Amino acid sequence: MKSILLTCVIILIVFKISANDTIVYQREGLFEPALVENTFFYHSLRPPMRPYSHVVRKIGTESNLIPYRHVAGSPNDPNLAFNWHITTNTVYSYDVMTRSHIDRRMGLTVRIVYREFESRDSVKVSHEPPQRIIESKVNVMPVTVYFSEIRDAFKGHHENIENAINKFYDYLNFDIYFDGSDSFLNFYMRDKDAFYIWEAPLPEGRSWDTDWHLKRAYASPHYDPEFIPRTHNQFYDSTKTHHNAITDTLFFDGHFKVLEQGGEKYIVNREHAIIYHMGEKEITPIGRVLVTEDYPKIQGKPLFIEDRDHNRLIFFAPIKWADTDLPKPNTFYMKEEEMREYFKYVMD
């Protein structure tokens, strides 16, 4: 028994320091998000040893430091996005657990995971005893109820439930944001014709539950008021839904990332490289990153970077802006030669 335990520990250590950093999952899109803050560079990895968690990697931008790796959440499904957010050294991500019956998908359970970024670099991890990871988790109840409505509509007909849920998987995407000024979690969710902002206070201690409510929803012109997951969902409030708020059909395709700058919220579509402004009543395309096949890569991956140190978004291709008076984020087109110098320690 001891030898088996020791073997598992060794496997975990090797996994954390030498996992494949450039594995590409389905529907990832043209590029992925990364972060620069306090001269550290953060980006996510997808270890190939499923069902292990995803990893957020941290490395210095001004010196050749040994990387840190933080075990984060895991969607366990290559068709679903993995997103993460960092506030004051706490990593927020989520676990997506597939509910099944006789190998049929019956829905999803989503759980937000958060804890302080790991304090040991990869070398220390390989030489010191394993740490017990203590994390806080919160169930995203609106998502659980979303799928329970589908199951209730097809009681006993498992094949019909699976067919319905498989259709919804093509549209579903999630992201997360925590605002330290008001201690509220924001969980963003997109389905076939609407975009939701679910909000809940961050609970004290390691609670699994908190009080979720719908902060706002944006509907497309093809919004279906009889859509089963919404009709009896106790968390959904149709009075907080803005209709005809998303007219760009490409918004509902591919993964997305929500970013904040200067008090404004923006959404980057990772499939089509379109940048949207999130207003009070509508979500509007304001620009497009002209991504091509030769888009420069960092650690083998095409990225766009939220640079909090300089309050800008870094792209490695030019942006074509729409003719609009809506706010635009502060962006910087960094050419490949400059990228290789600016991120030289990250790229080693």
Description:
A hairpin with a 2-residue loop joins strand 5 and strand 6. The protein contains seven helices and 21 strands. It is globular. The protein has about 350 residues and is an alpha+beta fold. Helix 3 packs across helix 4. The longest helix is centred in the N-terminal third of the chain and has 17 residues. The strands form four sheets. The protein has a seven-stranded mixed sheet, with no helix packed on it. Strands 9-10-11-12-13 form a five-stranded mixed sheet, with no helix packed on it. Strands 14-15-16-17-20 form a five-stranded antiparallel sheet, with no helix packed on it.
Features:
7 helices; 21 strands; 36% strand; globular; seven-stranded mixed beta sheet; alpha+beta; disordered N terminus; 348 residues; five-stranded mixed beta sheet
Provide a quick synopsis of the model.
By secondary structure, the protein is an alpha+beta fold. The chain has helices at 2-18, 122-127, 141-153, 158-169, 228-231, 336-342, 344-347; strands at residues 32-37, 40-45, 55-60, 68-71, 85-87, 90-101, 104-116, 136-139, 173-179, 184-190, 194-201, 213-219, 241-242, 256-261, 264-269, 274-278, 283-289, 303-307, 312-315, 319-321, 331-333.
Which SSEs are present, and which pair or pack?
Elements: H1 2-18, E1 32-37, E2 40-45, E3 55-60, E4 68-71, E5 85-87, E6 90-101, E7 104-116, H2 122-127, E8 136-139, H3 141-153, H4 158-169, E9 173-179, E10 184-190, E11 194-201, E12 213-219, H5 228-231, E13 241-242, E14 256-261, E15 264-269, E16 274-278, E17 283-289, E18 303-307, E19 312-315, E20 319-321, E21 331-333, H6 336-342, H7 344-347
Parallel strand pairs: 1-18, 12-13, 19-21
Antiparallel strand pairs: 1-2, 2-3, 3-4, 5-6, 6-7, 7-8, 9-10, 10-11, 11-12, 14-15, 15-16, 16-17, 17-20, 18-19
Helix pairs in contact: 3-4
